[in-house]
Amino acid sequence: MRVCLIAEGSYPYVAGGVSSWIHTLMTSMPDTEFVIFAIAAQRKQQGKFKYTLPPNLVRVHEVFLDAHLEEQAKWGKRYNLSPSQKKDLYALVSGDENVNWENLFQLIRSKQFQNVGEFLSSKDYYDIIQYLAKTKYSQVPYTELFWTVSSMILPLFLIIRGEIPEADLYHAVSTGYAGVVGALAKVVHKKPLLLTEHGIYSREREEEIIKANWVKGYFKDLWINYFYTLSSSIYSLSDEVITLFGRNKEIEIELGCDEQKIRIIPNGIEVSDYANVVRTLPEDRIRIGAIVRVVPIKDIKMMIQMFALVEQKLPTAELFIMGPAEEDSEYYDECIQLAEALGIRNIRFTGMVQIKDYLGNLDILLLSSISEGQPLAILEGFACAKPFVCTNVGGCRELIEGRDDLYGPAGFVVPVMQHYEEMASYVLKLCEDHQLRKVMGQNGFNRVSHLYKRSAFIDGYKELYAKLGGAEKWQVSGSNYASSIVKKG
Fold first, then answer.
1. Residues 330, 427: one domain?
2. I need a surface site. Which of 35, 75, 170, 189 has the fewest CB within 10 A?
């Protein structure tokens, strides 16, 4: 069986989180062939993989959202679109109605759309934007609206017109662009479609856009509605939808996903993999850690502000922020400057490290994200019996406090964004109480040992793949799997 995993902004370019989940899934199923449809922001990422690709990964198909910059076109063509085609295109850009995705895919992949840029320079497109301007954006400069909508849909149209690798089963690991590709694959190749939603993609984009400087205030709703519209494609066309915890399921239903499609398969790890993680340093100070990428959605600045308060009360405390910083170098620089401005002395940005080399010596772990799914970082910390203080995002409360289980709290949960004083108070409470750290760490260990096993997570997907994907044998050209990797712009 061959499975095409569709990933946006994660594997194989970014380490940790969803990427780790994908890598674990593939390496745990050596008898299944995988293709990765990798969607990345910029062509400069081409071939820059953070992972050693497993032998059963037979192809990486790379697509870049900045490829539209190469499109050139003449102005003024008339496509003579039908009323239903105009309706779907308007629904896509306005967010006012449901899109008939199968009809839209057929239109965009048709011969009349051979040059996407040409359509966006056509009289038909001008008519759609003019109607949008009159009905919803009459007070906005028309040229700004025109170029904003063009920048939204041009990358999408190019993806829709692109190649879709053949497989027995398509498995998107988010909605958004990845979800649209999954929906397109089902329509083009008539194969089953599975969605795993770790965090709620459309909600995450909404949070980013609200805070973003690159989107003018009067266009924020336009962008937000657009991402919700993209998510509707795979909600409507998927055969099954997997999420990681109960609250995510509730949100998916609110967003229009059929409840009958949804089932829960939590993340999982094997605690035995962490059996050799031990303390190697003396307990002469409190060491606090965060397994996290240094990017805005992880709200590292809140963590830094929190630690400034902790260090004032406990000057020997140390904070280790363990994860890649190159993904958003500007944000990383801002974090460094903030730490310096606050006079923090005992903070270390380690970059990518072997987490197991650090976990044994840490006393408390943190997560300050604005949005999450079900963080593997918390499961890893629990496997080493470490208590957590984290924000109330995704499945974090369920992990920390349990969901109708008897294991007890494994840390503390605080509201999201700017609650660094509350987070600091809980961290200090743990710093001052060795027995509390021990009890909460053990509660986390017991919870992950019994409820979040990697074997259960893998078995759940093996069952789904067997049910949906069949068992056709594929032939890979060449003697080495790496020879079949395709790099596509």
1. yes
2. 75
DSSP per-residue string spanning 77-144: ------HHHHHHHHHHHH-SS---HHHHHHHHTSGGGS-HHHHTTSHHHHHHHHHHHHHH-TTS-HHH
Q: What is the CATH number of the domain that holds 292?
A: 3.40.50.2000
Q: Is residue 311 domain-shared with residue 182, that is, in the same domain?
A: no
Q: pLDDT by residue (tens digit) across 100-126?
A: 999 999 999 998 887 888 888 899 999
For 54, the token pair is: 């497993």
Q: Which helix (H) or strand (E) holds 318?
A: strand 318-322
Among candidate residues 151, 174, 200, the one where a domain is terminated: 151
Strand partners, 414: 391
Q: How far is CA 356 from CA 14, 353, 378, 454, in A?
A: 19, 9, 13, 17
User: 129, 151, 173 — which closes off a domain?
Assistant: 151
Note the maximum CA span of the chain.
Answer: 76
Note whether residue 63 is domain-resident.
yes
> Has residue 431 been placed in a domain?
yes
Domain that holds residue 27: 2-70+163-267+456-479
CB 56 within 8 A of CB 32: yes
Q: How many alpha carbons lie under 13 Å from residue 117 in its C-beta half-sphere? A: 9
The structure tokens 């790890």 sit at 269
- Do residue 446 and residue 324 come from a single domain? yes
Tell me, yes or no, whether 144 and 221 share the same domain.
Answer: no
182 and 253 both lie in a single domain: yes
Residue 170: both structure tokens together: 């398509």
CA dihedral 187, 193, 198, 202 (to 10 degrees): 20
For strands 287-291 and 193-197, give the pairing.
Answer: unpaired
Q: Is residue 157 part of a domain?
A: no
Same domain, residue pair 263 and 275: no
- CA-nearest of 312, 354, 308 to 335 is 308
Strands (E), 116-188: 169-172
Q: Which residues contact 281 (CB under 8 A, 6 or more apart)?
A: 287, 361
Name residue 419's amino acid: H
Taking the C-alpha atoms of residue 327 and residue 132, their distance in angstroms, rounded to an integer, is 35
Strand, coil or helix: what is 55?
coil
Instruction: Return the residue matching tokens 């999408």.
Output: 156
Looking at the predicted structure, is the pLDDT value of residue 482 above 60?
Answer: no
Q: How far is CA 28 from CA 19, 56, 374, 455, in A?
A: 14, 10, 20, 9
**Residue 281 CB neighbour total at 10 angstroms:** 10
What lies within 8 Å, CB to CB, of 260 at 6+ separation is none
Tokens representing residue 372 in the block: 């999450």
468 within some domain: yes
pLDDT in tens, 346-364: 999 999 899 999 999 999 9
274 neighbors 235 (Cβ within 8 angstroms) = no
**Do 26 and 129 belong together in one domain?**
no
- Is residue 136 domain-shared with residue 257, that is, in the same domain? no
